[in-house]
From TrEMBL, chains A, B, C, D:
Protein's UniProt keywords contain Transmembrane helix: yes
Stated name of the protein: Transcript variant X1
One Gene Ontology CC term in the entry: membrane
Domain of life of the native organism: Eukaryota
Pfam families: DUF716
InterPro entries documented for this protein: DUF716, TMEM45
Gene coding for it: TMEM45A
Membrane topology term: Multi-pass membrane protein
Length: 276, 276, 276, 276
């Protein structure tokens, strides 16, 4: 992928995913907290389920497209992996990226099954998401041999976010619905997204001179830069969370839940049962 | 053990163990979920106990056979360890493998005691299993000195699965019966099994030319290969789990639990008490 | 900051923070334990809240002052970071320190919002504190390249305290109000404070000859010294905890809660509800 | 301490402590399980407390003696640490060992306070024990610079047991009274004890030729040896646990609790309340 676009594209995907997840979890948390005001209008159990199914389908679709793109792009492997004439492996980078997409696709497929049927235990979607992130970090970890110092360093910093996401997704298996963990994972997703852009700018600057990849002061600046990205991700997640909370509360106060009559009692009971 | 067979054999054992455990835990989970349909016919508390005892006995037997085989195989140590004439240790590999079997044997013995008597706390079987896997990983970790790069790498990758199993078995001490952890452990057992085969094929190719153990692109391919093995193990565990779940549910629906009359009430009470 | 004062100043801040926190948590713990004696006079729910708000405001203020001071001190960067003429980064240390203050400021701001409104989940303040400490440790970790052995070693020892605080603050997200964790975090804050002083004395001795930064016996002494600082921090935290506990109990016994009549029943009910 | 006796002595202490703890926790666990048979005769709440106080006093006494011995032994430092004439640190090893004893003494003192008064939270004794073990491991970790390969290796293996004990003591803060964790900690204490003896035999063989400290096959043998020590420690702990359990049960069955009349009801109620 050695190009600016090759880093900007996953950066966009992760950033959009981070914003989407922050909004989703903030909405659901606000819904849970304001149940007494009839907040289930915004996010009933059934609509949550529908949303999860749509989200999983979209991720599954993009993973599939990503795998195909890695294989059949202009100078791609087209399912070749070994060059029998020169006796060495070819296109290893494309295959590695396709493998990463494969795991995100697997996670999305499991999430789809979990939310559309009753067959699988619900925590399985988080476990698979954790495994997908772990696999991404695992492949990046052994991806760095023989590169220059700064190149290795920016990718190592990325691993903090990636393994952090894996760890928190694994913790969510045991603490499902904990808003603190969910927001932390969203923040790390945003961090990963913006850091991919940063890697693109540092290694393949679209304008201006190339960076000196062996200068130690560059490395120190990049480390500090990572902290700034983290602070910015925290800010974005925080602002989004507050906005969603305020909007939900103000809308609930404006329109009292008059339409929720006795007819819906049965549905609401089902909701509260699910919550346990 | 430096041979293809020497790696294929433990690979088979772990693969069979992985499939067996996946089936067992899937069946028990399906049983717990469908209690209202009388699913305890398939796996009553007593039959679960009997199954555990049989399983532990089998593992104990094979551990014992393995230890004997390592000692009394054609060019084995026959309980010799130190060569007093040349003043150095001999047969260290055989003794190390025997030590690994010893710990799995210990784990099986403890599991046997735990499930056949009331003396030991029930979580002890998982602790001992965790210690057995930890010991396996520990011995492999200090096993690699002075080998070539790829040889070290394939064994290091194995350690992810081995220490992962140890960690999850330790977590199960506190979260016993959590199907997510059980399936994850099964998946890692399957991964370990298939990876032993892969090690055999890479280091001692039964046909074709030997691999270049110092080529970096080989190392990158092997890393990716590990991800594929993990994906395959996830797939196998997932398919097995779904199959068992479906079979249990379809059989329960076909034959309603008519035979469970009042006479069995007492037994069912005992079951539900145990569950707490 | 390469100066004695530059290490003594943060040392003072952390030491004061450690003593303050130890006192605060000890008082609240004593209050919770002696509720039956009417201890809520000392630390009612409302006064706890007010205290937290004041504390957060003070930290926020000092973080802001610290950031300004790092920028506009005599030979500071004044918001410059890159020297376009000589094409390298300048003032990286000042910017790194300002970044550390930024995260503590963020944590204080979040704590302020958490305790003054109902918008944010209460555990968020600990998460942000954990992230602030993690960020401090993270920047120190990549701060040490190319320094002499003893310099690296004293900063590495500091990281034990810093990452320890981050870890414990993260554990407090799940175990809020656990006095053991709170006291342990206070102890590590005290340790960090006194160790900053030690670093100042070792690297920039205000009197006497400079230390030999390459002598191995110095390194061994420093390691042992760290243990002594830890023991001293444990002692200080322990003595403070005991003193506060005794004072609270003796005052409660001297003045029985006669003034707590029926009028206050409603307030006390609110207290006990909050406690859940 | 560079001598056989210097390693055999702590080995004895830890081994005795391991056996003592295994017996104590096994007895208390058996007592808790057989409450219905009147087992509180063997270990009532008050007698448990008394036992803890005696144990803490003994540890405190030996820590104090150890610290004095390290200082005032024939060629000891007598509270000197710095040689002002030759300008270097002296007797660092003695001071390091004294520091280790200091932390075990602190842990014992805290345990004494915890069990003899109501002032401190009960989990504090485990935290301090964990810190004492952590400190021991921490000092050993930076103790090894410049030694020969096998010397470093045997001490590194010791760290597995030491840090393992620290970790499990820390887990016990949250899972107090979990027999699995208690037995695991006892096992690691036994392992540490017997491994100290092994270190003595390897580095300072009392008879026979010295070991070749640079031979790699020696290192592999020692690694395997550590596994055997672990297996032996597991066996000792297991046999002790079973013996104590059997003795308690057989004694309870022989002498039914006839003497426990109505007069003691009140005491038993207090017991069961404590248990919560």
């Amino acid at each position: 992928m050695g190009s600016f676009q090759g880093h900007a594209l996953p950066g966009c995907f992760f950033y959009v995913a981070g914003i989407w997840w922050t909004g989703k979890y903030s909405l659901w948390h606000a819904t849970r907290r304001n149940r007494s005001l009839g907040s289930t209008r915004f996010a009933s159990r059934a609509s949550q389920r529908r949303l999860e199914i749509i989200e999983s389908s979209v991720i599954l679709f993009f993973s599939f497209v990503g795998m195909l793109a890695e294989q059949f792009v202009a100078d791609g492997p087209r399912l070749h992996l070994y060059d029998f004439e020169e006796k060495h492996w070819k296109y290893l980078h494309n295959w590695q990226h396709a493998t990463m997409y494969l795991f995100f696709g697997l996670a999305a497929a499991v999430s789809l099954i979990t939310h559309s049927t009753e067959a699988a235990p619900p925590a399985l979607d988080r476990l698979m998401l954790g495994i997908a992130f772990f696999n991404e970090g695992f492949l990046f970890l052994y991806h760095l041999h023989g590169r220059s110092m700064l190149d290795v360093h920016v990718h190592q910093l990325l691993l903090y976010a990636v393994f952090g996401q894996a760890l928190i997704a694994f913790l969510e298996v045991f603490h499902r619905g904990n808003i603190i963990l969910e927001l932390l994972r969203c923040t790390l997703t945003l961090l990963q997204g913006s850091w991919f852009w940063e890697i693109g700018f540092v290694l393949y600057p679209p304008s201006g001179p190339a960076w000196d990849l062996k200068d130690h002061s560059n490395m120190m600046f990049i480390t500090m830069c990572y902290s700034w990205h983290l602070a910015f991700a925290l800010l974005v997640a925080g602002v989004l969370y507050c906005t969603v909370s305020c909007v939900v509360r103000s809308r609930l106060k404006r329109t009292p839940p008059v339409e929720m009559g006795l007819l819906k009692t049965r549905e609401r009971d089902a909701e509260s049962e699910d919550e346990i």
